[in-house]
Every structure is written in structure tokens, then in C-alpha cells.
Structure prediction request, 533 residues.
Amino acid sequence: MRYVIIGNSAAAVGAIEAIRRYDQDNPITLIADEPHPTYSRPLITYLLGGLVSEERMLYRPPDFYQQYEVEPMLRVWVVQVEPQERELTLAGGGTLSYDKLLISTGGVPFVPSVPGGDLEGIFTFTRWDDARRMRHFIEAYGVQRALVVGGGFIGLKTTEGLLAQGIRVTIIELADGILSASFDRTASHLAEAILRREGVEVRTGTTVQEIIGRVGKVGHVILQEGERLECDLLVFAIGVRPNTALVSQEAGIATNRGILVDDQMRTTAPDVYAAGDVVEALDMLLGVRRTIAIWPLAYRQGYVAGCNMAGAEREYEGGLPMNSVEVCGVPTEMVGTPTLRRRGTKSWRSSTGRRWRTRSWCCGTSGWWGPSSSATLTGRVFTPA
Amino acid sequence: MKRIYVNEEYCIGCRLCEIHCLVQHSRSKKIIKAFKEEMPRALPRVLVEEEGALSFAMQCRHCAEAPCIKACITVAIHRDDLTGAILCDEEKCVGCWMCIMVCPFGAIRRNVEGRKAISKCDLCYVEETPVCVAHCPNEALVYEEREV
Prediction:
């Protein structure tokens, strides 16, 4: 029996560690399009800012594949999954057969189609090579002003990395506040004030309409209202969508925005599992299935998938959105689902029928935990209603 | 593995565990120096929770399936092969605070000493018995092996 895993990040590592816990014999093949051994994707913003070295990027020791007896196939692209033949079609025409398959292809950054979008100096920022390319670009052209489109977690993390390089950053956010999908209005305003204090310009309620080049590179952008903003570098950090390119409904793998999975992380095709940012799994707060693209849940889902692939039954108990980002030295964390529609709390009914109130919050400089903490709590999390 | 357990019926909330923990994790390991001279002061890695007559000391549970290990983006948080304790490699920690976010017990704090590293119970790695247990006047804290 052969296990095949597509992807090389948190979910894949979770699955490998789970499979080897129950099955030390059968071969595992790992396929990934990136050339790097498994690395910590969230660290790319720290790499950009020069806060970690390239050697520190690895998520597991260099001998991880040998130790877990995994055959890595790096720089290999999968074109199509064929559940009927239990086969993968690879780029270049080859095929690879499997007995149990895990799809953990993660997300792909969303790039809007904007005139001038093919100019040099426009980046998305989700991969190790993105960080390398961006650093080279910054050094080669002496970038001084950057534009980050999107005020979500990736946008803010990117901003942090760029600030560490001494670059002036402007954030363009379409919603009426940054981190609007994660923070309530109070926390969002706090974060915005902190950014402004550090010299970051924050524009909300607008977006980039056109990018104008200067000798082939980004020169300036035109905003929705016709305003012109100079920049040497532009980062699209609007969000990621599940990378479902290699599965199809016709092949019997049901997808919505992401791949649909049950509580064992099984897709609708036999012996095909999926985990991580590519799936729609249970949100335990809302009781619905949706993509929650965060690192800890990807590992957890991968681990559950791995257990079930190896025959040890395990259920995914669901997850909830949470994230942690430092805004110019002020750490913030959010858990749950906020509301921007009205002040105060929002109540949800969980799948068990219990009512909860949730709010996001922001914290001060000395940590949030403990009675002596000087944290600025802007809300409580999960108060039973 | 041996873990720290609490008998909350004996805990009177004296917070000696916090004091001894702080001293143990200070640079000098001397009580007066730790409180009066070493600034910023070391953090206790145990915290007494209190409500009315109920109180108990809370520190890292060293979970069997630890959410902090899975959430750590730099692999700084790891399980020690020898003791089973969950430790943080301060050299690797970049201070993303994911562990603080996922810890179900609120047992991890930011290290205020300026370093981007977390502060958590290490079961007093070099000691036979963790100092909070050794100095608990009522034996409200015990260090023992139990079936999980």
C-alpha cells in the first residue's frame, strides 16, 4: 500500500507524523511544487524583515524525510487527481498511483485583474521564494515606498516585514477598517492608530484601480477616487482561496469554495483525504463547514487525516478562527468571529445548540494573561449567553 | 511522565509558589536580588487563580497532545525527550505568540525581558522537584506520575 501526500506544509507534516505513529512499514510519497524541504510558511514575513535567517526557515530537522521514511518528490506538479484509476497525472505526462491520498495543496493568493498588473515589482506573499524575490527586488532597486493592498493578517505581517527593512508603507483596504474580517471596530481602530503612530499610512474604503509603470516597473497607482499614489513596490495581500485546481467535480471530489470533507477529513471520493487551507471543514462555533486558513488547524486536520489513512479512527472536532499578529510592536490576538455591524457582542448558536457571545480583542504591551497585566481588553471571548 | 497536580482543597492562595518560581527563573536565584535588583523582574511561570474561598496554582500542564507544539511556527516549543516536559528554545522563538493564543490553560506568558521569547513552566529542569511543589506549605501541589 502506498500513501501519497500532495503538499508540503503543516497539514502534510501532521499527516506524516500521524501515519508513522500507526504504520511504520508502508511507503509514503510526498509531492510538492516548491523546491524546499518542509518549511514554516508563517516565517516568510520574518525572513523578509531579516528577523530570521534562511537556516531557521525549516519546519522540521533536515533529516525529517529519512527519519519518517518519506520519499519526497519536490519540484513536481500534479495536474489532475483521478480517483477512479487511483492515479495522479503529473506535469510532463507521468502518472503516480496511490492507495491512500491526501490533498493538502493549501491556498493560492487572490490577485485582482487590474490594468498594469503584469508590471515588475508586483508581488503576492505566501511562499519562501516570494520573500527571496521581494528582498532581491528591494535591494536591487532601493525600494523606499511600498503599497500593501489588503489590511488583513497577511497584509499586516507583510507591512511588519517591510517596515523592518526601513520602507515606508501605505496600506489600502477596501473595507471600512483594517483586519475587518477578524477584529471588531474597537480593536480595528486601535490597530490602525498604532500603525499611523509608526508612520504607516492607512487608506480604508478604497482600492487600486490601475497600476502605472515607470520603465517596466511599478511607478504609481490610481485609487478608486482617481487619487495618485507613488510606490516602488506593490503587494497584493487580499486573501487566499483554496487551491482546488487539481480536483474536479467530474472525478467525484465534491468542492464548494474548498474541498468538502467529513469529520474524518475524507473527501467524497474513496480513499482520498484532504486537509488544511484547501478544505471546508467544521467551524465549531457556527456549526457550518468553511475554510479557516490557519496554521494550527492545518496541522490538526492533517494529523486527523493521517490517523484515518493509517486505519486509526480519529475525528476532527472542528476549529474556530484565531490569529496572532504584531502591529508595530504591539501584539494582538483574536479568537472567534467578530462583528463590524454594531458595537458590542454578537451571539452565535453553536452546533450543540448552546448560545455563545464572542468578540475579538486586542492587547497591550505586557501580555494579556494574569491579573497584573495591563492589557487593553476590548472584548471577552466566548461568554456563554 | 511526572506532572504537577494541584489539590485545591489545601491551597490557601499564599502565592509562595509564584515567589519561588520567580526566584528560580531569575538570574541570581537570590530572593532579594530577584525582587529588588534584577530589572525587569523575572516572571513567575505559575499563577494562583482565586475566586472566593477557591484558589489553586496553575502552570503548564505539559499536555500529551500539546496545542502549543502544533501551533509553534518555529519549532521552538518542543517536548524534552528525557523528562517529557514541554520546553521553549529561546533562540528559535520569534515571538509570534501563537502558543499563547492556542493554550487552553492560559499558562504561557510573554517574556518581558525584551527578548522575543515566551515564558512557561519548564518543570524546573535542573531540580529533582519543581520549586513550586517543594515550597508549597500545605502540599497543595504535588509532583507525581498519574494515569492520564
